[in-house]
Amino acid sequence: MASLDVVRSRIPWGGRRHRHAARRDRFAHIEVRGVDGPKAHLVRAEVEQALVALPSVGRAWLNGPLGRVVVELAEDDVDVGDLVEVVVDVEQRLEVHHDRFPLDRPDHPADVGPIVRDAVAAAAATVAAGAAAAGRLAHLPRLPAEVGGLVSLVASDARARNAVGTLAGPALTNVGLALLNAGLQAATQGPIGSLADLGHRASLMAEGRARQAAWGRAQDHLHAPGREPGTAAGGDGASRRDVPLRHGPVESYVDQASVASLAAAGGTFLATADPRRSMAAALATTPKAARLG
Fold first, then answer.
1. What are the backbone angles phi and psi of residue 25, rounded to the nearest 5°?
2. In this structure, are residues 239 and 230 in contact, taking their beta carbons and an 8 Å threshold?
């Protein structure tokens, strides 16, 4: 993993430039550069001080794990863009404005980004299902059905998916694999797979909206006075875990099934010398259901 971090730090897309910022009711959450670097304590202190100095702001504190400053607004007609400008001024003054946002930073519950990504994937699956059905009706030539499962093999293998995600970021990997899968499903004229993906993405969008609603109901309690730094509201905690979370039963099964899938493909090819049957064997043992939940 360390070697992947070195590679990611040296490539042009080794981080996000786009800043995430969201507002719900009287709280705004603005992503801040430099909170993972050597100037983290300075960034924290000056961002909070600059924001609290505004007459429209009641409180402000940095949420380390999410890399965002939480701003409690004292007025209703506050433009989040004005708050972002204050944060940008501090970043420039501390010379962290060229830092990129980490690709592996977790999404905030108030973000619309995950829902938008799922909507893009759902739209691609819808188009792919229509194109596949039209191709079948028109008796157009198509790619072998096994080709459509290539993306599932990559997406279901944790090592392959994490390697791509480390370089491109989880968000881009998610959308990229979804679009590639939709294109292959259309080319192989497999509408059933596209419809299954559509249903899965629709479920994820509903889950995202429910998460936003739950956050809206809970944020007043989470951001109550006295819960800013060093509490469950998460002010001064480390932005990264010292050690990764241990795998649970599902993750362990996915790892084992991925190895079994490769073994099945290799064994089938040795027995039949047929690449299509080898691919079919690999797809039959791909742990897609466990990954999708």
1. 60, -125
2. no
* Residues 198-210, mean pLDDT to the nearest whole number: 93
Q: Does residue 81 carry a pLDDT above 60? A: yes
Q: What is the SS3 assignment for 6?
A: helix
pTM confidence score:
0.74
CA distances from 89 to 47, 139, 149, 198 (A): 9, 60, 48, 43
Return the half-sphere exposure (C-beta side, CA atoms, 13 A cut-off) of residue 150.
17
User: Which tokens in the block code for residue 239?
Assistant: 């932005």
Strand, helix or coil at 145?
helix
pLDDT tens by residue, 259-276:
788 888 888 888 888 888
| Phi, psi for residue 101 in degrees, rounded to 5 | -80, 135
Count of beta carbons in the 10 Å neighbourhood of residue 112:
15
CB 100 within 8 A of CB 16: yes
Q: How much is the pLDDT for 4?
A: 44
Half-sphere exposure of 283 (CA within 13 A, CB side): 15
Q: What letter does residue 101 receive in the DSSP assignment?
A: B
CA 155 to the chain's CA centroid: 14
